[in-house]
User: What shape does this take?
Amino acid sequence: MADGTRMVSVGRHVLAATVFGAGEPAVVIEPSFGGAAEDWAKIASAIARQATVVTYDRAPYGDSSAARDHRTPDEIADDLDGLLDGLGVTGPLVLVGHSAGGLYVRAYAAAHLDRVAGMVLVESSHEGQRPVLDPLRSRRSRLGTALTVPSIMRESRTERRGGDRRSIIREWRTFNRVTAGQPRLGPGALGQLPLVVLTCAAGDPDVPLPVWQRWHGLHQELAGLSANSRHVVSASSQHYLNVGDQELVTGAITDVVRSARTGLPLSELAGGPEPPAPSEPALAPESPEPSVTPGPAVTSDPAVADAE
Assistant: This one.
């Protein structure tokens, strides 16, 4: 357990959480499916120089208890709300959601929009991704998805990040249902709240270009949640941008915090527009720079592997 980690009872769960730094709005990080707070420790420490940062292990991962529910986005959002109350974090929030965590922070925003000061979606899953992406996936990818539950059953507790198999399988099955559904937030639902959407670069050999292009399009749609948004494509093709492009993720969170504090639009804190999504793979330059699209920009984008 990390130094300063607190165990907080929330309903039927006990959640492990760590609070770094001080200052509003507080930044709250929701990890990916199978992820844990430790995955975000370096980014949290960097952001803590300017704001309060809350990281936690969602049930059943890390030091938290097994999950006693179906792990729906609403149930996870309720856990987060209870956790913040237990920690005494009562002010405005910048929500950071990675992959499946993006679903969960949007569920929180749908229920507690008055608490939300901004949002960062990092390689976020989309509620409508399965009908869009599944037909484009390779046979190998579809087989891997079909074998997810047997794979979880074979994994050690360490590989499962401390989670029990039953809880993880419930979350996985719920995730599959939710990502064949309808968005929790409609276009413009966040109004003028600052929103940054981060997408990995094309080029992962396990992600065919058509899958990445649709993934990119889904993320453009997410950018349309706010009139004060930015969609950035990383120079890294890793789904886990919290590892593959920490500087970009840290900068995005910093800009959203600054926009929330000052009222300045993100367009005054960022660079120019992003070129169109590539129609064919391109070689990255020696010193790649992320591309930026001001939002909103609604189009018609494992996840990708193709990701959650």
